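Input sequence (211 aa), recorded before submission:
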Amino acid sequence: LVPIAVVASGGGAVAGESATTDATGVATVGGWTLGTTAGANALTATVAGVDPITFTATGTPGAPASLTKHLGDDQTATVDHDVPVSPAVIVKDAHGNAVSGVTATFSSVSPGATLAGATQVTDAAGTATIGRWKLGTAAVHYSLLASVAGLPSVSFTAKATASAPATVTKQAGDEQTTTVGLPVFVRPAVRVTDAHGNGVAGVQVTFSTTA
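Predicted structure, token format:
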């Protein structure tokens, strides 16, 4: 008898798909390589005049091969507040399958920012999400690194914007002396800042004479 083995699903490959049974009636396929997509694979063996039988195997992801940003890059948040979307990365093997159970570590590059849940393990979808990224009190750009052992790190950025106006201070043009009927030499200017001393843009300021 000459059984014929054919890949039924999973996209794998068969070597020595035709084999003759030995004295005990056993025929062994030359080799069965599973497909590159993680999941179910099936192989069918057929013998003329007999109902075919099916073998199954499950392909699991390979070793981590890539680390990429998944969510939460290039955000904007108010100073001293969490970013709207917690940064997340995704880990995949060389064939693009998500790899679970991989430890990802997040670390702040910029001073002033605080993290919570900085060490996370990838889930079934291969993603790991930081617990919290709170920007500092300075209205500047902040950076965050995510790393996995053996792979290049990836960087997230966030821009911190000033909070609500809290103080108004004289910036220029106070206590001048000028001839009557003529404009002052330095035009008066004020600076509007938030509670942390950051300049606040877009605030309407009205100047009016009092004497």
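Checked by second reader. The first strand starts at residue 4 and ends at 9.
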